[in-house]
Give the backbone structure.
Amino acid sequence: MDPLDVLGDRTWLVLTGAGVSTDSGIPDYRGPGSTPRTPITYQEFVRTVEGRQRYWARSHVGWTRMWHADPNATHHALVALQDAGRLTGLITQNVDGLHEQAGHRDVIDLHGRIDRVVCLGCREITTRAALHERLTALNPGFEQRTGELAPDGDVVLRETDDFVVAPCRTCGGDLKPDVVFFGENVPKERVERSYALVAEAEALVVLGSSLHVMSGLRFVKAAHQRGIPIVIVNRGTTRGDPLATHKVDAGVAETLATSLRFV
């Protein structure tokens, strides 16, 4: 079956995952050949000073690489589809901001943005770039350390107990990246906006997500309940495969350029 036969002339709602950003040099958690990861949980982060120290040390070293990642062919293809009127919305599980950087409008960043920082005390939002400057001043030379880049933009480091963490400048509280950690709930407003898009969608296209976590899978379930076509493009199996009208086991960029011949 050709995905175009499934989608016809319908417009799409798109849900993207980490497989969309791998061509930009950002690794994913569950793609074929991915190194098994144990990311920090929200509970670990808020419970211990050591947990926050470990996170910010690793993230500080990895930030430069994440910050310099560029949108790839998939991001640009989705912008072209949006401009051509083929899309009704885009929900992303990625936190890298590459959809917006490519020029996509009205993206729902389901899991937040890594380029923002939130204070757990006063809830003030600041930029990651500003925090990076502070951490660099507090930890001269630390970002020169090397390690393997992990999916969330941090780098695997063994020694982090000498890292100095910066507090909130407004209230002295603990700072956290403005992203949804494992064990943390997606903000209700984002979930409701996403469900609203599903309720109006003519078709759902999932790109580069294993749908391993319920935060994305629930929208596939909602689309299935509505009876609209669901096309999933992902290397390897996903939890949504039993609900899909059609599954393409291949890379996202190559599929958009060949099987989904809109760009």
